[in-house]
Design brief:
The complex is a heterotrimer of chains A (153), B (740) and C (291). By secondary structure, chain A is an alpha+beta fold. Chain A is built from 5 helices and 5 strands. In chain A, strands 2-1-5-3-4 form a 5-stranded mixed beta sheet, sandwiched between helices. By secondary structure, chain B is of the alpha+beta class. Chain B contains 18 helices and 33 strands. In chain B, the strands form 9 sheets. Chain B has a 7-stranded mixed beta sheet with strand order 3-7-1-14-11-12-13, sandwiched between helices. In chain B, strands 9-18-17-16-10-33 form a 6-stranded mixed beta sheet. Chain B has a 4-stranded mixed beta sheet with strand order 20-28-29-32. In chain B, strand 11 and strand 12 form a beta hairpin. In chain B, helix 5 packs across helix 6, helix 9 runs parallel beside helix 17 and helix 15 crosses helix 17. Chain B starts with 21 loop residues before the first helix and ends with a helix. With 291 residues, chain C is an alpha+beta fold. Chain C is built from 12 helices and 14 strands. In chain C, the strands form 4 sheets. A 4-stranded antiparallel beta sheet of chain C has the order 5-10-6-7. Chain C is globular, with a radius of gyration of 20 Å. Classes of the chains: A alpha+beta (153), B alpha+beta (740), C alpha+beta (291). At the B-C interface, helix 3, strand 8 and helix 18 of B face strand 1, helix 1, helix 3, strand 11 and helix 12 of C. Strand 8 of chain B pairs antiparallel with strand 1 of chain C.
Chain lengths: 153, 740, 291
């Protein structure tokens, strides 16, 4: 089955035979391993991608069903060596330790700021409650997003 | 305090400089083990035991071998060298050797053209089992002599009695490290009969030692390279895919990758030992501890792993951060058919800290005394003897300062309004504000630093001056904690330059750095980097007759007398150091002696809101005061404290592997619950810098402290809110609501 | 003596090991509209429906479940409406969080995570028919009906009690598709939801409850305490016979709810706690509907 998606701004075609997930195709067939595979059941958020404007767990998207959609992964957020504001803020606040959750948080967080540029603390917490971090205790991540929320748009 | 200014250095110690691997991590470009691949690569898969205890009657690999795309099917008969591995005791067969000792024990491994074929081939292996009765009760196992280690601590007068006596029985559950990055590894043949192994590890040299023994190969034939690690917390101290993937690659002559999924990860690494702990504390009328008696039973599961050392830690921290002259402990770690246990952040001290801090609260209650005053009255200080081992504490130990500092942090206001996200039960809308009671609880935790009991503990590092900057070479594992940053900072401060890169060498290029565990790398590898940098600096200054090394050369009385190009005219200049901490000794038959290299203390205060009727808890705040010796990177310290506390929150109110007849019932992220952003308390930290006697610039390791006393502080707060005397963690809703 | 990967290995591994081949070709149809969806189901009654993927893909990923035929309803716009008479099966939880039915919106907000709510649908919740389905107590309390449709027999309206037949079992015929849920005319405005779990996000319900207060009195529905969503009929009768809702009445009401539910002990909770929490939630929600 041939599938075409707009991936990080470029049209990409791939072929799938079975029910494999978009996550699997991104990592194994499209050479984009930045999206992480940590639970495969939508319970950790490590595989979050922006698909047609929504933050979704790519492990729960059947790849063939993504045909025609617009997908943004962590690799597509920064361009020409210029980091996305969320990536900058995460670094500045020490919100990265092992970093395995980071791509999912960066994508989910950038989607949050698109829909709500000035979220409150509790809105940040709820919006990122689908992204498990095992290292930081979330404190530095919260400070990064509070910093972003305080910025003038 | 040590002076931290070095001419021209902006990102040395004491600054919150960012991590060098930060940018690749935020852009998705950091290569974790599970991201690796090689041309012509095969995939490996593992067949595991369906029983916690069973005899392997028949193993027929022919159906798997017959499948198209399958290149190798290996069993224990194919292990070329030592049949068994293990960090402390080589007791686990590489693959099941006749009797499976735990649920999920590896039985056979397969290499095939793709992941799916490998998995199907593993399933096609025909196995006939004779199920045996699993031993699942650790007390019964110990009674029957099935223990990896038993130890006794006898100190002081067994006849001593206190006027106030409190007794309790406590339990802690089996906690999983649940690092987000699952186990993975890649083996690549070198064309000369050897292999390059890209693996995750906490101690790559001890993995290497076990791998070459089982493969019967020379050390230089196998080179272990560190691959990107997605968290560890103790789970990577023991071997997982390492020997299997190497055997498959040697058997096929092709690169082989293995990667566990989440469920296999839960099955494939050791966990925190569940513990059962009986305690009796005796004190005089003033609250001075007179005697502590305890019996500890930890469940080690099917194989030894690091159980012996975990038990020692549990036993030596039976009394916590307090003085007591009469201490009697019987401790054992059972061999059962439950999932194997080993290292997890806190390493035995978590279990006994929970029990002993609950005891201190009960004692304060019996004495009608403020719980913090009781702790201050008995607090360990430098020059005191550790209650269990009798070892006199050298260096700093600011126990009372930590208690005072955490107590002085202002308490948070009561939650106002009815935003459910700030109430117990969250958006589940279970709990009106009127059903909430607040509680505040404290706990103090003591932990040893680095390896103990006479282990020859060292770390090797090489620091190299080149014309383009300084290189720090080490095999110490960066698991996310930020060692990479601290190594840079130390070298920058000593060598007077910001241009420092950390280079991870493989096992053939540099000696062991020891394990990334026991809160030890900042002090051990940091100590090695410090000593090597000092050696290099002094050597360069002496060679040129100067008095200072700066970024651009050697100076004498503020005048440059040699450029870096001139310093390196004959090539890079380097200094290699093996750093050792103060010698430790095995305990005598009574558990006495200088068994530890140093100590670190922390105090935690938890504020919880509880809905007692439903038993729901919201951990509002966990504040901490942490003994750090010297703060090398304040931002990284905050990250360790907040992250460590969150694992303490998990153990306090939700995390446990549910094991029935040796089988894990919840090996998924749906059912093994880890705190989310909405479960995370606010954390306020106080850093106490009193310097220590042997870490670089007086620094202490702080990786484990935050996880140790945060759990009992939370339970103490729940007790304070509800008037209960909870005695096991995690505290589940039914425990509070009184409905099981 | 056991052979092969025995069932006692339990859950995950035995399931996976016997799974079919990943590389077997799969037939996939992305239905463009409801007619096409019904056509495909008529021709391929074994085809599995794919909506948000939040249940099906977990089975694919973890149990290595390999469906041979899939029909996706993600592009069927007719199923995404929330109206005054029906809620389309393809409505996501994210959309339902904003809907006018208070208790359903409250329930929607507790489903999984933001990522799950952006993908998962109420139709999927109904089709999966898990005892813990977060949307199901609302359906039971509302006395809503499940709308199903097939090419051959057209639309069929099934009362929820007849639709849910057991743990993850329904009376849906193989050629049928769940198209929506009816909204009864007499749906009370006073309606409240609550759910107990051991974590504040991404948690499967230990117990969930919906109470509605309407002209006919209180209705009390619960989830995770029986093989299917259930109404606490005896407790409803008891409380609806009372003229004033005193604390004593509420106590007795809660006791009856505790007695009436049929929970089990599993790795997520115990029978005793589920009974207790069911009673407490029902009692608290009655109070909330009176505020």
């Amino acid at each position: 089955m041939n599938v075409t998606i707009t991936l990080n701004g470029e049209a990409r075609m791939f072929d799938v035979a079975g029910p494999e997930s978009l996550l699997s195709v991104l990592r194994n067939d499209l050479d984009l391993p930045g999206t992480k595979d940590a639970c495969e059941q939508g319970e950790c958020g490590s595989c979050t991608v922006n698909m047609d404007g929504e933050a979704l767990c790519s492990c729960l998207v059947m790849a063939v069903d993504a045909d025609g959609s617009i997908v943004l992964t962590v690799e597509g957020l920064s361009s020409e060596g210029e980091l996305h504001a969320v990536q900058d803020a995460m670094l500045k606040h020490g919100a990265v330790q092992c970093g395995f959750c980071t791509p999912g948080i960066v994508v989910a967080g950038s989607r949050l700021l698109e829909s709500n540029p000035h979220p409150t603390e509790i809105e940040i917490r709820e919006a990122l409650s689908g992204n498990i971090c095992r290292c930081t205790g979330y404190g530095a991540i919260l400070r990064a997003f509070e910093d972003l929320a305080a910025e003038e748009s | 305090m040590t002076t931290r200014t070095t001419t021209g250095v902006h990102s040395g110690i004491g600054t919150s400089v960012g991590r060098p691997d930060g940018e690749p991590k935020v852009t998705g470009n950091f290569a974790y083990a599970s991201d690796l691949s090689a041309d012509n690569m095969l995939w490996g898969a593992t067949l595991r035991s369906p029983y916690a205890h069973a005899r392997l009657v028949k193993l027929d690999i022919a159906p798997a071998l017959a499948m198209a795309g399958v290149h190798a099917v290996l069993t224990q008969d194919d292990v070329p060298g030592e049949p068994r591995f293990g960090q402390e005791e080589q007791d686990q067969p590489v693959l099941c050797d006749g009797t499976a000792q735990y649920w999920g024990e590896p039985v056979a491994v397969v290499a095939a053209e793709d992941e799916e074929t490998a998995r199907l081939a593993a399933a096609a292996i025909v196995v006939e089992w004779e199920p045996l009765e699993p031993v699942v009760d650790p007390d019964a196992a110990v009674a029957n002599g099935a223990a990896f280690r038993e130890m006794k601590i006898r100190r002081g007068d067994e006849e001593a009695v206190g006027s106030i006596v409190v007794e309790g029985f406590y339990e802690t559950a089996m906690q999983d490290q649940a690092p987000l990055g699952p186990e993975a590894g890649l083996a690549i043949p070198d064309g000369e009969g050897g292999l390059d192994l890209y693996i995750t590890s906490q101690w790559i040299h001890v993995d290497h030692r076990q791998i070459i023994a089982c493969l019967a190969m020379d050390p230089d034939q196998i080179r272990c390279h560190p691959a990107g690690i997605g968290g560890a917390f103790g789970s990577r101290e023991d071997i997982s895919v390492h020997i299997h993937v190497a055997m498959l690659s040697l058997a096929t002559g092709r690169p082989v990758k293995m990667a566990y999924d989440r469920t296999e990860s839960f099955v494939g690494h050791v966990k925190r030992h569940p513990a059962r702990m009986w305690y009796r504390h005796e004190a005089d009328d003033e609250g001075n501890l007179v005697k502590v008696t305890a019996r500890l039973v930890l469940d080690g599961g099917g194989y030894a792993h690091t159980s012996r050392a975990v038990l020692a830690n549990a036993a030596f921290f039976t009394v916590g951060a307090y003085r007591c002259d009469n201490v009697f402990v019987e401790a054992a770690v059972a061999r059962t058919n439950n999932p194997p246990c080993g290292a997890m952040r806190g390493f035995g001290a978590v279990q006994t800290c929970f029990a002993s801090e609950m005891q201190m609260d009960r004692l304060a209650e019996a004495l009608d005394m403020d719980p913090l005053d009781l702790r201050r009255r008995n607090a360990l200080a430098p020059g005191d003897a550790v209650a269990t081992s009798g070892q006199i504490i050298e260096g700093s130990l600011p126990t009372i300062a930590a208690i005072d500092a955490v107590e002085a942090i202002p308490l948070p206001d009561l939650i106002e309004g009815d935003d459910p996200r700030l109430l117990p039960g969250g958006t589940g809308l279970t709990t009106p504000a009127s059903s909430v009671v607040r509680g505040v609880g404290y706990a103090v935790g003591l932990k040893n630093l680095a390896f103990s009991e006479g282990f020859d503990d060292f770390a090797e590092a090489r620091v190299v001056m080149t014309t383009s900057g300084v290189e720090v070479h080490t095999a110490a594992m960066e698991v996310g904690q930020g060692l990479v940053t601290v190594c840079q900072q130390i070298a920058r401060t000593v060598l007077g330059t910001d241009r420092v890169a950390v280079v991870w060498d493989d096992t053939s290029q540099i000696g062991s750095a020891g394990s990334t565990s026991a809160s030890r790398q900042t002090q051990m590898t940091g100590g090695a980097v410090h000593a090597a940098a000092v050696g290099l600096r002094d050597q360069i200054i002496a060679a040129h007759g100067g008095d200072e090394l700066r970024d651009d050369g050697v100076y004498l009385k503020d005048e440059r007398i040699a450029t870096i190009d001139e310093v390196c005219v004959a090539g890079p200049v380097d200094c290699l150091v093996q750093f050792r901490h103060p010698e430790t000794f095995p305990p005598d038959e009574n558990g006495q002696g200088d068994v530890h290299a140093g100590f670190v203390v922390a105090a935690h205060r938890a504020v919880v809101d509880v809905d007692p009727e439903l038993g729901l808890v919201r951990v509002v705040r966990v504040d901490t005061a942490q003994d750090v010796g010297t703060a090398l990177n304040p931002q990284a310290i905050t990250g360790q404290l907040e992250g460590g506390i969150m694992q303490g929150v998990g153990l306090a109110v939700m995390e446990q592997l549910v094991v029935k007849e040796g089988v894990i019932l919840n090996p998924t992220f749906t059912d093994y619950l880890i705190p989310t952003f909405l479960d995370a308390p606010d954390v306020e930290t106080r850093i106490i810098e009193e310097g220590d006697h042997w870490g670089p610039f007086g620094a202490k390791g702080i990786g484990e402290s935050p996880t140790i006393s945060s759990t009992p502080a939370i339970v103490a707060a729940i007790n304070a809110a509800t008037g209960q005397r909870l005695s096991k963690v995690p505290v589940l809703p039914g425990d509070i609501a009184g409905s099981g | 003596m056991g052979v092969g990967v025995s069932t006692s290995y339990g859950r995950s591994y035995s399931d996976r090991a016997f799974a079919t081949d990943y590389r077997m070709p799969m037939e996939f149809t992305a239905a463009a509209n409801l007619d096409e969806l019904l056509d495909v189901k008529a021709q391929q009654p074994d085809a599995q429906l794919l909506a948000g993927g939040t249940d099906l893909m977990v089975a694919v990923n973890l149990a290595h479940h390999r469906p041979e035929q899939i029909v996706s309803l993600g592009r069927v716009e007719e199923l995404k409406d929330v109206g005054s008479a029906r809620i389309g099966a393809g409505t996501t939880w994210a959309r339902l969080e904003q809907c006018q039915y208070t208790a359903l919106a409250q329930a929607a907000r507790t489903v999984g995570s933001p990522q799950i709510r952006a993908a998962g649908t109420i139709g999927g919740n109904i089709g999966t028919a898990s005892p813990a389905g977060d949307g199901l107590p609302w359906i039971a309390a509302a006395d809503a009906e499940i709308i199903v449709e097939s090419k051959e027999r057209g639309e069929r309206i099934v009362p929820w009690r007849e639709f849910f037949t057991g743990v993850k079992r329904t009376s849906l015929a193989s050629d049928e598709v769940i198209t929506g849920v009816t909204i009864p005319d007499n749906l009370p405005d006073a309606q409240e939801f609550a759910k107990v779990g051991t974590r504040n996000a991404m948690v499967i319900a230990t117990v969930s409850c919906v109470v509605m207060r309407g002209d006919d009195g209180f209705r009390v529905a619960l989830g995770s305490v029986a093989p299917t969503p259930m109404r606490a009929t005896r407790a409803e009768e008891m409380i609806n016979a009372e003229s004033t809702i005193s604390d004593a009445v509420l106590e007795e009401f809660g006791r009856i709810v505790q007695d009436e539910v049929q929970p089990i002990t599993d790795h997520r909770s115990t029978e005793a706690y589920r009974r207790h929490a069911a009673g407490v939630l029902a009692r608290r929600l009655v109070k909330r509907t009176l505020q």
